[in-house]
Amino acid sequence: MSQEITEELLLFFHSFLTGIIMAVFYDGLLIIRRVIRHGQFWISLEDFFFWLICAWGVFLFLVEENNGILRWFAVGGAILGAFLYKKTVSKCYINIMSTIGKSILHILYLVVQKIMTPINVGKACIYRKSKRLEHRNIKLLRSLKKRLTVGIKLLKITLCKHTEIVLWIRRGKMARRAAYKKRRQNKTGIFLVTLVLLMMLVVVGIKSIELREKKAYYAKREEELALQIEQEEQRAEEIKEYETYTQTKKYIEEVARDKLGLVYEGEILFKDEN
Question: 3-state class of 1 per DSSP?
């Protein structure tokens, strides 16, 4: 037999064993699910991680045995090993291991129950004692509550009296503050009225000075206007006298002789050549 055929037979045998091992591990999951109930979510999650680990293991197996080259007879050997295991040993293995697991859990439950019995008894004793103490504490609390209620009432009465005294003192202080504030307001009002009167006196003084100056100006202006009127009256008299003169015969002769060069018949007019 050639070496190549021997290597292929070894690869097939190892694949067959790998299939059996994968099936055994999956039966382990089934046993755990029988002993401890699982929900659908956890079953799906366990299957997902199982097949993920199996794929990783097959990959490492192929790398180790056949340099990572996939051979169909190796896949067939793994499937054949898992199939034969499932048809022969799987059911007995699952039933036996499930029974053993359940028995172990039952024994552990009994042991834990035995261990917990004195603890439960102690808890019951502690609970009864705590109830008694609680009852006593309730009585004490009620008596303390009554005493506190009486003390609070007395304290309220004392505080009310103290509050009345404090209010009386505060009212006195407030009255004094109001009187002081009123006096201060009166002083402020008097000061403002005095200030307004002073300002009015200053304004009246300034206005009286201005009126005096205007009076002197208007008196001077009146004198000037009276002088102008007198001059105009004199001028009017002069104009009236001149108008009367222009209507005389003498004025006509002077104008005719000086302006027009007219003379009487037989009259000789001599002119100065210089």
Answer: coil
In a domain, 247, yes or no: no
Name every residue whose Cβ is closer than 8 Å to that of residue 13 and which is 6 or more positions away in sequence: 77
227 domain residue, yes or no: no
pLDDT in tens, 190-225: 777 677 777 877 776 787 788 888 888 888 888 889
The total number of structural domains that make up the chain: 1
- The residue type at 262: L
Q: Is the pTM of this model over 0.70?
A: no
In a domain, 268, yes or no: no
Return the pLDDT at 260.
67
Token pair listed for 95: 């039933």
CA dihedral 44, 48, 49, 55 (to 10 degrees): 160
Give the contacts of 90 (CB within 8 A, at least 6 positions apart): 23, 27
Question: 221-241: string of b/e by CB count within 10 Å (b at 16+)?
Answer: eeeeeeeeeeeeeeeeeeeee
Q: Provide the 10 A C-beta neighbour count for residue 83.
A: 13
The first and second tokens of residue 180, run together, are 């002081």
Residue 252 pLDDT greater than 70, yes or no:
yes
Return the half-sphere exposure (C-beta side, CA atoms, 13 A cut-off) of residue 221.
Answer: 6
In this structure, which amino acid lies at residue 170? R
Enclosing domain of residue 72 = 3-88
Let me know if residue 182 belongs to a domain.
no
